[in-house]
From TrEMBL:
<dbReference type="GO" id="GO:0046931">
    <property type="term" value="P:pore complex assembly"/>
</dbReference>
<dbReference type="Pfam" id="PF06369">
    <property type="entry name" value="Anemone_cytotox"/>
</dbReference>
<dbReference type="GO" id="GO:0046930">
    <property type="term" value="C:pore complex"/>
</dbReference>
<dbReference type="GO" id="GO:0006812">
    <property type="term" value="P:monoatomic cation transport"/>
</dbReference>
<protein>
    <submittedName>
        <fullName>17704_t:CDS:1</fullName>
    </submittedName>
</protein>
<dbReference type="GO" id="GO:0015267">
    <property type="term" value="F:channel activity"/>
</dbReference>
<dbReference type="GO" id="GO:0051715">
    <property type="term" value="P:cytolysis in another organism"/>
</dbReference>
<dbReference type="InterPro" id="IPR050677">
    <property type="entry name" value="Actinoporin_PFT"/>
</dbReference>
<dbReference type="InterPro" id="IPR009104">
    <property type="entry name" value="Anemon_actinoporin-like"/>
</dbReference>
<dbReference type="InterPro" id="IPR015926">
    <property type="entry name" value="Cytolysin/lectin"/>
</dbReference>
Length: 176
């Protein structure tokens, strides 16, 4: 199994492609969240609005210089893709870093979306929180890079537009 927490230089496109191959369906996503900030991201929790993962969400903290590598997929025998939220607590702050993804089954009316936000307090991901992030100006999964500022931190990220996509997000200090 290739999911886990890695040193950032070890997180490559080849590793994400391995994750995609290990996921057992046509609609899937390989996720990496790289922590280039000085804070520690800890106590991750995941909520699936649709789909699942055959991998448990790696629980080790994301220290500076580390990154999450993980994957999600659609559930078998359902007519939806994969969508959900991962939330990390930002250690020593009363803040949560939340990442939302959505990979639909059918692209006729839908497209890939992703979002990254910081919220006050310790957020528990659930259906209501997923939809809050989904409608809070997400980025389109179109292969283009997007960036933004989150309080005293910033991020860059990109998600593919296919049913078998990778998403790479880098979280760091400072303004975008």
């Amino acid at each position: 199994m290739s999911t886990g927490v890695y040193e950032i230089p070890l997180i490559t496109e080849s590793l994400l492609e391995i994750i995609l191959r290990e996921l057992e369906t046509g609609r899937k996503i390989a996720v990496t969240i790289k922590n280039e900030s000085s804070v520690t991201l800890e106590n991750p929790k995941v909520y699936f609005s649709s789909g699942t993962s055959q991998f448990g969400l790696p629980s080790p903290p994301l220290y500076s210089g580390k990154g999450l590598v993980w994957g999600a997929r659609k559930s078998e025998y359902v007519t939806r893709g994969t969508a959900g939220v991962i939330v990390y607590h930002i250690k020593d702050y009363n803040l949560s870093l939340a990442f939302m993804w959505s990979v639909p089954l059918v692209y006729l009316f839908y497209t890939n979306w992703w979002n990254l936000k910081i919220y006050e307090g310790f957020i528990e991901p659930d259906e209501e929180f997923f939809w809050k992030m989904y409608y809070d100006y997400p980025h389109k999964g179109d292969g283009n890079p997007y960036s933004g500022t989150l309080s005293r931190w910033s991020y860059e990220g990109s998600m593919g537009d296919a049913g078998q996509s990778t998403i790479t997000i880098t979280f760091r200090e400072g303004k975008a």
